[in-house]
Amino acid sequence: MSMMPKLQNCAGLLLAVLASGVHAAEFEPERLKDGVSLPADMPRLYVSDFSIGHLSDARVHVLDGRNGKFAGVVDAGYAGAFTTSPDGKRLYVAATYMTRHTHGERQDMVEIYDADTLRMVGDVAIPNKKAQAAFMHNLLRTSFDGRYLYVQNATPATSVTVVDLQEKKVLAEVASPGCYGIYPSQTEALRISMLCGDGKLATVTLDAAGKVAQRAVSPKFFDAGDDPVYVPSPAHDGRNYFVTFQGRLHRADLRGAEPVVEQTVSFVTEADRKQGWRPGGYQAFTLDQARNRLLVGMHPKGQEGTHKFPAREIWTVDLATGKRVARTPSKNAIALSVAGSGKTLYALNGATNQVVAYALPAMRESYVSEPVGEAPLQVDAP
Fold this sequence. Notes:
- By secondary structure, this protein is mainly β.
- The chain has a domain at 267-382: Methylamine Dehydrogenase, Chain H (7 Propeller).
- 7% of the residues lie in helices and 46% in strands.
- The chain has helices at 4-26, 270-274; strands at residues 44-49, 58-64, 70-84, 90-98, 106-114, 120-126, 140-142, 148-154, 158-164, 169-175, 179-184, 191-196, 201-206, 212-217, 235-236, 239-243, 248-253, 260-266, 278-279, 285-288, 293-299, 311-318, 324-338, 344-349, 355-359, 364-368, 379-380.
- Strands 19, 20, 21, 22, 23, 24, 25 and 26 form an 8-stranded antiparallel sheet that branches.
- The N and C termini lie far apart (80 Å).
């Protein structure tokens, strides 16, 4: 058989390869991007994911608050805590990283993200003392003006790291023995209060250099052995609201140098108490500021140890009177958050990891999202 046809075929193939090479040189491969571009009018819904099966890889998922659709994700390292700036333009994550993923040298960081693109725009190294805790409000908070960031520490000795976000450096570490939880003043940027195990509130005022200028404590207002108080505490008009495991509501004015507990009421009637109705969840209550109401996840047959049980109902409590004005069936809510607009309540279903949205004030279910993450615990709708 003649070799000429084979040579002609090889020559044709070579020309085809050379020709394709010219086109390949003009090909622009797709490049991975380190962020997104979220619509300016999209209400953000942040959902924590504790990633219980692989704790060093926590996440903060970002959803479109209008429909619950997935919009982006931010890394949160090991046991990260997150919060947003008062204007909603920044997302702050305080996380722990290890040089060998699950072991090695520890490094605690505050990471700063642009809320519109989810791109990291800065970070600050902080002392390796950050509380290794499940996602929870009041473990990471900003000052009312957004200048400072407060980080809860536990080694297990408790203290608070103060980060100057303008200078991007640690300003101070404030010792807080026996106290846990951060409640910033709504009038003074360098003033915070803390919840203490002896049943009191402690308030610390710092000077511009981060030194403690004044400390004050409130009278005892709860008994941690009889009726403990949840650490999360929403604030409005300079007042913080604390809820106990048995359904008592304490209102405290934390604006001044001395904490003042102004009012204590029970929103669980005697008849409800006999049925064992109690608050439950990881973020069991939230404020509807537009209507001066508290929304609380409640479960029946409650007893010692059920304070994290998912809600069977969501109770609406009038803050002016302390009385329940409505009760709504709940789909196992473990975290509640009212949007800053006051139009929507978001409830995290602890059984399915779905977010259930309710239109306010009617408490009418408007949508149910797809499942979010593996072990979501916290919802924030600034």
